[in-house]
């Protein structure tokens, strides 16, 4: 047996290494902590996600599952060893070219797995790629761009050329190189320069309980490395936080009472080695269990301000729905249930905080630095101006990193101890404690006349908002606006209730409740079409909202509402896939049946009838560099690149000439949260204004006309207007702390109006639309469902970067497939990526994307968001496909095999 004192000798990225390390330690920890190779990411520490994949003697292994002792005499390659000097490998270049890295947290693992395959099979087939990369999970890309990159790795890349305009060009991500080299710094990669304490949160194992804490002195005596135990009494300011100004209901640390499993009870601060040795059984805490309040059975009130556990209600009413339902030629009704869904981003929450004089700085993964700043000040009892939030790269968010997680405790500990404090959530901790997609209980009715025109729609949805409010009011108010789907319906009554339970807090998750509602609404369209003898495509086309269409809130849609065009674009594929499925079913008599489903969606961009501003600044430094200061956080959706492309065109320079400072609350303006598909539309407009304002200032100083060309050359600015050429000298101008001497500022807030008691008004300035078609195969003996092909036509206004738009559509479809077929979070049972199933690379079928570009007059260069719209139509299209394959209507999502079989039995018994 090897002695721990004996150094390990091995080859690492082509270099001989001798390293003293405990042979039983995880290889992932040795690489990251001892060797500083943080390109190897840790997403689960259980071998489930594959983010830590490296090559050991040329074969892919999960570094979190390999003891360091196995390195002796072997050859190890990590992502840092792929590039040759500063030149990317062909595989890395292909990933960058195809947009195969979105957030980038899984990218190193994907690259290593692909490298293993390509070393064995230089020209692989698609099935071989799927098999080789099947052990690495991605939550962002939908995998298709990754497959494209691996299949195209041997291609000769086109010679780089600067496009005439940045907007509309397939430019690589401005932050793409760090993602493919492993240099990108995520929350767990960020460390202060000085020694750092570690914080471990002790959480409730019970959904509903009271507790008392005992004496911590014996714990300190046994563990001298334990520096501090933090309880609710140690919070310097307000021990409550929440999204809405009037809804601060969630404690940083519970005060003798917990409302959900995973709630933070107290925290241990010390060195990491000490904290790892403290057993839960040794902690002085006594529990008194209480009956849980559930979505099914209710229970006693969990909050004094929420009688009957009703957090809030939503309502949209128009016309006489009851009379229209009673007098209709055709009516249909449905009841639908959906479950908790976990965000399952591959990066668990992580970061650190440090006190700097009378200020606190927190460096962490977040979707909303300014909201974090504004919440952390009151928790610490200080002004928000004393708080600095520096976002790291974010390894996926999807809404789950909008709420505070580790930030308050790290800040409290650092504030009290005057020492940096770091937190890295474990995967089970992340899944137990953070927000989920709202479970729903929906009933809906729809009616149509004999020609298939919708006449009435009635909807009620109960949404389980869990223990705390989080984004529950957003869901309750957004869903009634969208519940009818993107169709003209003259008579509408849509209501919602957000209910508290002892479930985990339900928060923001890509769609804010609209995906759940769409499952019901799109099924009703198919049911009405069947009664009236109409094609499901036809009934949607007859009722589709377009330019001049009137919504359920009374809003008249302007130019850019392009659902009819989406449906027209998808019609040939709908017809072809229906014929293909029918031919398959005629030719096969076994248990496999195929069906094709269709669904449409719409989604209001930004906040619902609330102020939604974004501010941007673009500057020129004294040495002639252009810099965009953007507070918009890129969580993988590509806003860093999009903002640069928009600002570059507004200024009139190539995108490569624009530098970027992003996120830091001390260096940027508030661009608002990265959610609600708002950044391209809202912050993009602000970036465009900032670029235009800076351009106007430069042209004014050069006394040039509006069509003049601006050239940044060798630290100088040349303005050419016809035959006149002016060289601007900036050396004499005063510079700010960023070195900026000239600046342009932009601010945009979408024009909306409040909704009245019946939900009438203008809740959103712009809407995205889409139509999707799904070909599915159902094994009627096993109850399993496979998606074989998906076609998605999306109205994006203008594709600022088509590669990124396609990637968002692919990623949204993957999450929609998970919602439809496999994802169901059960507290206490599925708190890891082994028991909680998300789609793998083998689950995602070929996806055909059709970009419908009808410019929105309000959007920057006509653009609008696509992040959430990408998801919403997928689950209903798949579930409708199951019906057309089998005649079984699935009304509980996900459509797991047992539920499919139960639905099939019900059809046979009818």
Can you describe what's shown?
With about 900 residues, this protein is an alpha+beta fold. Helices cover about 25% and strands about 25% of the residues. A 7-stranded mixed beta sheet has the order 8-10-6-18-15-16-17. Strand 15 (about 350-355) and strand 16 (about 360-365) form a beta hairpin. The radius of gyration is 28 Å and the shape is globular.
Summarize it.
The protein is α+β, with helices and mostly antiparallel strands. The chain contains 22 helices and 34 strands.
- Which structural class best describes the helix and strand composition? alpha+beta
Strand content: 15-25%
Secondary structure: number of strands: 34
Order of adjacent strands in the largest pleated sheet: 8-10-6-18-15-16-17
Span of the ends, CA to CA: 68 Å
Give average pLDDT, whole number.
Answer: 97
The helix tally amounts to 22
Q: What's the overall geometry?
A: globular
The profile of the biggest β sheet is: 7 strands, mixed
How large is the radius of gyration? 28 Å
What share of residues is helical? 25-40%
Uncertain segments are none
């Amino acid at each position: 047996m090897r002695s721990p004192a004996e150094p390990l000798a091995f080859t690492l990225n082509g270099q001989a290494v001798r390293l003293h390390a405990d042979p039983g330690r995880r290889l992932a920890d040795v690489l990251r902590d001892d060797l500083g190779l943080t390109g190897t990411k840790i997403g689960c520490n259980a071998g489930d996600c594959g983010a830590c994949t490296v090559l050991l003697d040329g074969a892919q292994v999960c570094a979190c599952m390999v003891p360091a002792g196995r390195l002796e005499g072997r050859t190890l390659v990590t992502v840092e060893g792929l590039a040759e000097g500063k030149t990317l490998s062909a595989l890395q270049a292909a990933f960058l070219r195809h947009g195969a890295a979105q957030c980038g947290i899984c990218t190193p693992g994907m690259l290593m797995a692909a490298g293993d395959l390509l070393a064995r099979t230089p020209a692989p087939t698609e099935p071989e790629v799927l098999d080789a990369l099947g052990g690495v999970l991605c939550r962002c890309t939908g995998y298709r761009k990754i497959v494209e990159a691996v299949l195209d790795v041997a291609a000769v890349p086109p010679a780089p050329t600067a496009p005439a305009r940045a907007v509309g060009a397939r430019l690589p991500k401005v932050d793409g190189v760090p993602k493919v080299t492993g240099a990108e710094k995520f929350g767990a990669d960020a460390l202060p320069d000085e020694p750092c304490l570690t914080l471990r949160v002790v959480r409730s194992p019970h959904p509903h309980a009271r507790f008392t804490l005992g004496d911590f002195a014996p714990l300190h005596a046994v563990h001298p490395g334990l520096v501090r135990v933090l309880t609710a009494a140690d919070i310097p300011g307000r021990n409550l936080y929440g999204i809405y100004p009037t809804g601060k209901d969630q404690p940083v640390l519970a005060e003798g009472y917990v409302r959900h499993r995973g709630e933070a009870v107290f925290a241990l601060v010390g060195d990491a080695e000490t904290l790892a040795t403290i057993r839960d059984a040794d902690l002085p805490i006594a529990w008194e269990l209480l009956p849980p309040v559930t979505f099914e059975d209710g229970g006693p009130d969990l909050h004094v301000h929420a009688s009957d556990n009703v957090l809030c209600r939503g309502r949209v009413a128009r016309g006489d729905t009851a009379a229209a339902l009673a007098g209709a030629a055709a009516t249909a009704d449905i009841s639908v249930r959906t479950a908790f869904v976990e965000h399952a981003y591959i990066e668990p929450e992580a970061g650190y905080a440090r006190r700097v004089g009378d200020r606190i700085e927190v460096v962490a993964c977040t979707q909303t630095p300014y909201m974090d700043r504004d919440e952390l000040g009151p928790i610490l009892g200080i002004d928000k101006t004393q708080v600095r939030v520096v976002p790291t790269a974010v390894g996926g968010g999807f809404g789950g990193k909008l709420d505070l997680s580790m930030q308050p405790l790290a800040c409290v500990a650092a504030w009290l101890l005057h020492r940096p404090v770091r937190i890295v959530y474990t995967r089970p901790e992340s899944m137990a404690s953070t927000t989920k997609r709202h479970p729903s209980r929906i009933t809906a009715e729809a009616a149509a006349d004999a020609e298939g025109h919708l006449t009435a729609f009635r909807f009620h949805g109960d949404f389980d908002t869990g223990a705390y409010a989080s984004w529950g009011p957003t869901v309750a108010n957004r869903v009634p606006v969208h519940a009818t789907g993107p169709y003209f319906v003259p008579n509408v009554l849509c209501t919602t209730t957000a209910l508290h339970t002892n479930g985990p807090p339900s928060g923001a998750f890509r769609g804010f409740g609209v995906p759940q509602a769409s499952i019901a609404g799109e099924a009703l369209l198919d049911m009405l079409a069947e009664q009236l003898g109409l094609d499901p495509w036809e009934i949607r086309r007859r009722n589709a909202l377009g330019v001049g269409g009137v919504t359920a809130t009374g809003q008249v849609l302007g130019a850019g509402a392009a659902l009819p065009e989406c449906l027209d674009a998808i019609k040939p594929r709908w017809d072809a896939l229906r014929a293909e499925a029918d031919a398959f079913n005629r030719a096969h008599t076994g248990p496999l049946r195929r069906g094709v489903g269709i669904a449409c969606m719409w989604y209001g961009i930004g906040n619902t009838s609330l102020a939604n501003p974004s501010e941007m600044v673009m500057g020129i430094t004294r040495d002639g560099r252009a810099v965009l200061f953007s507070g918009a956080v890129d969580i993988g959706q590509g806003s860093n690149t999009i903002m640069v492309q928009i600002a570059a065109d507004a200024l009139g320079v190539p995108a490569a000439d624009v530098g970027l400072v992003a996120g830091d609350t001390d260096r940027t303006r508030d661009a608002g949260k990265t959610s609600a598909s708002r950044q391209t539309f809202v912050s993009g407009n602000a970036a465009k204004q900032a670029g235009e304002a800076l351009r106007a200032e430069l042209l004014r100083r050069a006394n040039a006309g509006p069509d003049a060309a601006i050239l940044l050359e060798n630290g100088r600015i040349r303005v050419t207007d016809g035959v006149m050429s002016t060289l601007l000298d900036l050396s004499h101008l005063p510079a700010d702390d960023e070195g900026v001497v000239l600046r342009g500022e932009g601010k945009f807030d979408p024009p909306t109006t409040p909704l009245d008691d019946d939900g009438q008004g203008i809740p959103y300035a712009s809407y995205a639309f889409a139509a999707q078609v799904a070909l599915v195969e159902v094994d009627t003996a096993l109850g399993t469902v496979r998606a074989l092909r998906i076609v998605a036509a999306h109205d994006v206004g203008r594709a600022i970067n088509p590669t990124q738009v396609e990637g968002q559509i692919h990623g949204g479809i993957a999450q929609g497939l998970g919602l439809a077929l496999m994802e169901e979070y059960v507290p206490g049972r599925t708190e890891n990526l082994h028991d909680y199933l998300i789609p793998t690379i083998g689950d995602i079928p070929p996806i055909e994307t059709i970009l419908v570009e009808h410019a929105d007059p309000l959007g920057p260069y006509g653009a609008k968001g696509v992040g959430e719209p990408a998801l919403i139509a997928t689950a209903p299209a798949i579930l409708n496909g199951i019906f057309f394959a089998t005649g079984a209507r699935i009304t509980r999502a996900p459509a797991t095999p047992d539920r499919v079989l139960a639905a099939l039995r019900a059809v046979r018994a009818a």
